[in-house]
């Protein structure tokens, strides 16, 4: 049996016939905030490779609760907990880092960022020194989760993560690259967020080669607050489930679900938030694949676009003196502000739809964009706050 190999032009002619128009790209194209070109269909013309992760299977991280010891292998700690054995422990509190009681059977990772994300624009060298003296597997965190929650684009998040990384290398030397955890918040654009994680793996690996290394970044991914609504907890749960799926499929080494009832949190809501991860992992085993979307023409193309655009922005930041200088001058804050306001305008206009906020039912606007955002400050703002 022989098969006819169809060209891209053959497919275009078929689509034109089906839609009864020659303007198929105008009809099928859709704008996005990242200015990423998304084609209506793809033909593979590039080689692909597996983008590996550090952990064999993605850690499902729970905020510590009594009674979860048997169900969770990994815990996020903000205070000391004794008696934990054979766990992956993620430290989230700078005060805890100094006094934590370590156990040889556990693995320890720091989620503590040593950068001040304000116009002081400095690295806390004393805190960094304390963390580097610890027998953790990864001692320093480069955190860009705040940037996502403040409204930064994916391209900005990737560039900022690299720029923070460069600052740490300049301060502590290239060996710091093997001691880092990168913390990302995962938004609602399912395939773009998969591509975000994949793009950072590629970027960090290329960056490490500048220092004669061939490294894979350790990525901790958590659900975003940006698209969550105060009075819409059930939809928050659905949104965070999709975000967790993006993180696992993209190849994060650890995932964490923030409480979907962020204003009325309880032990039960925290447990439900964690068990989203359990359902995803054990029903679909997506946490064990190394690079599930490798070879997907769409995801590969978007990954490449993110990598190229964020590398370009990273170089622009470096030309201005690096992340800290851009922070000190207000350039970082301004970039995030402009992107965040654009996104908020799309919500206000209905171009971005949030069920239970500006769709089913449509709530009234109660806060202006000017009241929500400040061009001099990086602060988390939920899109739904305009209507609450």
Automatic annotation (TrEMBL):
Protein origin, superkingdom: Bacteria
Gene3D superfamilies linked to this entry: Methylmalonyl-CoA mutase
Domain Methylmalonyl-CoA mutase alpha/beta chain catalytic: 147-384
Pfam families on file: MM_CoA_mutase
GO molecular function: cobalamin binding; intramolecular transferase activity
Name of the protein this chain belongs to: Methylmalonyl-CoA mutase
Species: Epilithonimonas hominis
